[in-house]
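Suppose a classmate hands you a notebook page containing two proteins, each written out with its sequence and a corresponding row of structure tokens. How would you begin to make sense of it? This section walks through that situation. The first entry is reproduced here exactly as it would appear on such a page.
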Amino acid sequence: MKEIEQRANIHKNLQVIGFKIFADGVLEFPTQTAAISYPYVNSGKQGSLLVTPALLNRFVLFADRNHQLVHIHAIGDRAVSVSLEAFAMARRQSRNSVMPHSITHLQIVKPGDFGKFQRLHVLPVMQLLWATADRYTVELVKPYLHPDLYQYHYPANALANAGAIICGASDWPVSSANPFEAMAIAETRKGDLGVLTPAQRVDRTTMLKAYTTNAATAILMEEAVGSIEPGKQADLIMVDRDVMRVDADSLAERG
């Protein structure tokens, strides 16, 4: 770990603060590599984990004890559960652990795991620009996924209601880095093919925090950025409309 830090931390504006781990793949047909608890309807398979739970547990504990963040790609509910268990083990083993570890994407999360994010202080890092009824979610996922899983598609509202601190992300360059587009989708869940799981809509205030103070916490920079306060960096932009009052279409509109 020290060698990694010495090799990487060679500039004041470049620091290694943690690691990203891929726990599984994607849900969309025909790939269907995301690890889920019910079999895919067409294949009878359940996707696969890209790392064994035992190895993930060891790595998370190692990183945590060395004060490094762990950021896990988990799409399917089974991958999310395995990731949460790794963080739970690290919290048990390191009683003083306060690192804000995170799980990203979270396309499907089972209800039994909603409350674990708050209890384990694990941040759900979500790309809610994707939480829309489009070709991907409606045509390439819905026909192949058990209904009990599909209803918890990008379950932002359920996570927030369970006390989780939602963090906003883009996964750029895979999709747009414009946070206002994601905020609008999070609020409406509307797409070309309808509305995706409307019960999971979240309000604009939640999303503003997700892309500001909460996002700063996720990268250990809450003392420097994330809000406009004395002593913090002047990391800000000017916009041409009141982003808390305009409708969702105007919020997402590009300049």
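The notebook's second entry, a different protein, reads as follows.
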Amino acid sequence: ECVENGKRLRGGAILFLPDEKPYGHGRGRVTSVTFSPERGHYVGLALLAGDVAAEGSEVVAVYPMKAETVRARIVSPVFVDPQGERLHG
């Protein structure tokens, strides 16, 4: 999920650790993005190297086509109603 207000993730962005120089293939790639009304900001799906994929980790998403950089946090893909309370009302 994007952690910077007013910025958005972009599909195809290359993911790096915060202390890495954004060069090369990175640690992963954002595969798709959408706005989440539930969260109030953009969220995306990504393919990540195993050493980076821990929930709560921060990454930097670099989109070279528009020279954009945005901070993001790795979260569970199930962030809307994870206990199933809405479903089982």
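A careful reader of the second entry would note: The chain has a mean pLDDT of 88.
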